[in-house]
Amino acid sequence: MTQRVLIIGATSAIAAEVARLLARRGARLHLLARNATKLSTLTSSLDPSARVTTCVADFAELARVEELVRESVRELGGLDTVLIAHGDLGDQLKSEASFDEAESIFRTNLLSVVAFLVPLANVLEAQGRGCLGVITSVAGDRGRPRNYTYGAAKGALNVYLQGLRSRLFRVGVSVVTLKLGPVDTPMTVGHEKNALFAQPDRVAASIVAALDAGVPEVYVPSFWSAIMPVVKNTPERIFQWLPFLSGR
Predict the structure, then answer these.
(1) Reduced to 3 states, what is the DSSP secondary structure of residue 150?
(2) How many domains does the chain have?
(3) What three-state secondary structure class fits 1?
(4) Residue 202 belongs to what H/E stretch?
């Protein structure tokens, strides 16, 4: 049976690689994105034999999200797997001076995601099967001065997904929290790169494997599973004196 996949935020570098992987193995794709030009470019790069439909939408229009979900399920003829991949780092320093910027970061990284999760969870719960994957971030595991507004949004999303996972597991629906470390993408173009930055194609392969397995929570790349317990459990008085953890 052909896997029917909805990808939200499909033109991000990581989601685009996921779409390419799934298209090559014959999945039926419906791609939602905010930029029509990027979406057209992505679609033309997919396996020519792939069945793909697309929709351009502003994810900040939260009142329209439920309609987008209904349209997506109708286009696919059902739903097996979802990947929610949209997000934005925002401007941390600006968010400290402007509530408008802080609200924008929360709207993009938390509220718009939850707006999708509510109707999608209800669809999958009603059919009693499926997989719902959401890209979050290691930044959500502990507040750090360099990105704590973004991290707070992702941290709240992690907690939401924990509750959703416990609600849905009894009916056979998997909720996969994908905690990504920094990835070398356009979203991080202004950041100094180091050995911890991953490449989108390798990250995409790990995401597809996690969705296939239906694992509850996974760090991508996997080495973050060794790093983040140290970051999370370092006492605050020590944490604040370590520039590589608490610096800007």
Answers:
(1) helix
(2) 1
(3) coil
(4) helix 200-213
A 10 A CB-CB count for 8 gives 28
Distance separating alpha carbons of residues 3 and 80, to the nearest angstrom: 6
Please say if the pLDDT value at position 8 is more than 80.
yes
Assess contact for 68 and 117: CB atoms under 8 A: no
Per-residue pLDDT tens digits for 89-117: 999 999 999 999 999 999 999 999 999 99
Q: What is the pLDDT of residues 169-180, one digit of tens each?
A: 999 999 999 999
Taking CA atoms, 17 is separated from 140, 205, 225, in Å, by 23, 8, 23
Residues 6+ apart with CB under 8 A from 67: none
Look at residues 49, 22, 43 and name the one whose alpha carbon lies nearest to residue 31: 43
Q: How far is CA 209 from CA 27, 171, 176, 232, in A?
A: 14, 22, 11, 26
Q: Determine the Cα–Cα distance for residues 12 and 111; give it in Å rounded to an integer.
A: 19
Residues with Cβ within 8 Å of residue 38, at least 6 apart in sequence: 11
* Domain span holding position 207: 4-246
Which CATH number covers residue 36?
3.40.50.720
**Distance between CA atoms of 147 and 169, rounded to whole angstroms?**
32
Report cis status (omega within 30 of 0) of the bond before 119: no
Output the CA angle 29-31-37, nearest 5 degrees: 130
Please give the pLDDT value at position 191.
Answer: 65
Using DSSP, state whether 130 is helix, strand or coil: strand
